[in-house]
Q: What sequence folds into this?
């Protein structure tokens, strides 16, 4: 008799426990880089994941870093696509169209112009706290597609491709 009473109680507790541990899948998330600010790059990305394999992202980015003979001051739009291969393992591509107002230390003048930067990455998204938050290491290779109005020594000081260490933290909305 006790077994008959205990079985439904055990089943109810197990069902409630499993229901509380279900992971959340949200199509929307927001993230920012932990590593880019070390180089003077600040970004925020809004992610949209319509399926488990495909994710699109967009966001503002500001670049403010210096080289030996010039200083970058670029207002950038981040556009990207991420494809999940297996669980959190993914490949991604990003483009950064930008308006860059470069200051030359040689001529002491500004060189306003447009540029396009691209990166390809491979990474892994690690979900935390029942999928509410994530951390995403995604190192990659970056390269310039074009740059208008280059200051002196620009091509000598930037060597492509560039290794881009990236760690993103984010939250699901």
A:
């Amino acid at each position: 008799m006790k077994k008959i009473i205990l079985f439904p109680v055990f089943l109810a507790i197990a069902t409630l426990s499993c229901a509380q541990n279900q992971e959340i899948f949200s199509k929307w998330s927001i993230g920012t880089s932990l590593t880019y600010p070390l180089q003077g790059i600040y970004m925020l990305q809004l992610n949209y994941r319509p399926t488990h394999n495909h994710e699109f992202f967009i966001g503002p980015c500001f670049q403010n870093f210096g080289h030996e003979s010039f200083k970058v001051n670029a207002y950038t739009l981040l556009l990207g696509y991420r494809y999940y291969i297996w669980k959190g393992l993914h490949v991604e591509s990003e483009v950064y169209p930008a308006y860059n107002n470069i200051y030359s230390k040689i001529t002491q003048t500004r060189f306003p112009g447009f540029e396009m930067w691209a990166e390809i990455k491979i990474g892994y998204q690690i979900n935390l706290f029942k999928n509410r938050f994530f951390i995403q290491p995604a190192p990659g290779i970056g390269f310039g597609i074009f740059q208008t109005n280059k200051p002196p020594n620009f091509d000598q000081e930037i060597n492509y491709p560039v290794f881009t260490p990236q760690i993103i933290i984010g939250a699901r909305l």
Notes: Residues 2-20 form the longest helix (19 residues). Residues 4-21 have pLDDT under 50 and may be disordered. The two ends are 48 Å apart (CA to CA). The CA atoms of residues 41 and 63 lie 4 Å apart.
